[in-house]
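pls design
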C-alpha cells in the first residue's frame, strides 16, 4: 500500500531534494505547474525543450519570439528579421533598381522613380537590352558546350569499342598461350612415361640374361 498511497511522502524525480518532499497525490500538479526543473516545451512553438526555470530566458532569444526591427520598430519574428531588413523594412536604405545608382529609404523608392520616370525608363530599357545580349552569349556558350560534350561522348564510345577489340585480342593470345603450355606439359608427361617404359624393359632383359648365366653354370 505504501507504494501507491496518495498521502505517502515522495521526492520529485526532476528537482529531487531541491523541490522538497510532496504527497504522492500532489506530484502531478507539482510537475505541471510548479516544478522549476520539469522539462517543458517552448510555448512559442520552436520545438525545443528546457527546464521550466530556463523557459523565460529562452523566450528572450527564441527564433519564434517577436522582436522590434531596429530601423522601423515593427514587431517581427526574430528568425524573420534578416528577411525583413533585406526585403521589407521601409526604413532600410536601398539602391534604385532602375539603374540610376541613387540610394534612399525603401519607402521613398516609389516616389523617386515616378519623379524621374523618363530617365528611369530609359535606363531600364538599356539594362534589359544588356541582359538580353548576355543571355544570347550564355545560350551560345551552352550550345558550344553541348556540342563539345556530344563530341567527347562519341570519342569515349569509340575508345570503348577499341578497348573491347584489344581486350578480345589479348584474351585470344592468353588462351593460345595457356593451351600451348598445357600441350607442352602433356608432351613432357608422355616422354617421361616412355622413358620409364624403356627402363622397365631394360631391367627385364637384364634379369633374363642373369638367369641364362646361372643355368650355364649349373650345366657345367
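designed seq:
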Amino acid at each position: 500500500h505504501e507504494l501507491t498511497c496518495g498521502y505517502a511522502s515522495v521526492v520529485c524525480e526532476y528537482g529531487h531534494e531541491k523541490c522538497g518532499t510532496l504527497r504522492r497525490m500532489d506530484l502531478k500538479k507539482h510537475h505541471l505547474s510548479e516544478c522549476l526543473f520539469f522539462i517543458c516545451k517552448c510555448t512559442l512553438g520552436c520545438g525545443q525543450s528546457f527546464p521550466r526555470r530556463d523557459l523565460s530566458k529562452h523566450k528572450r532569444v527564441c527564433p519564434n519570439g517577436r522582436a522590434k526591427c531596429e530601423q522601423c520598430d515593427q514587431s517581427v519574428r526574430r528568425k524573420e528579421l534578416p528577411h525583413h531588413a533585406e526585403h521589407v523594412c521601409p526604413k532600410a536604405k536601398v539602391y534604385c533598381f532602375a539603374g540610376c545608382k541613387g540610394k534612399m529609404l525603401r519607402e521613398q523608392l516609389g516616389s523617386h522613380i515616378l519623379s524621374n520616370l523618363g530617365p528611369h525608363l530609359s535606363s531600364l530599357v538599356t539594362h534589359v537590352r544588356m541582359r538580353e545580349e548576355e543571355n544570347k552569349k550564355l545560350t551560345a556558350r551552352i550550345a558550344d558546350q553541348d556540342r563539345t560534350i556530344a563530341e567527347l561522348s562519341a570519342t569515349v564510345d569509340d575508345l570503348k569499342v577499341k578497348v573491347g577489340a584489344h581486350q578480345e585480342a589479348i584474351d585470344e593470345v592468353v588462351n593460345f598461350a595457356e593451351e600451348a603450355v598445357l600441350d607442352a606439359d602433356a608432351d613432357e608427361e608422355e616422354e617421361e612415361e616412355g622413358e620409364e617404359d624403356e627402363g622397365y624393359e631394360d631391367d627385364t632383359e637384364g634379369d633374363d640374361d642373369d638367369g641364362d648365366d646361372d643355368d650355364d653354370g649349373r650345366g657345367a
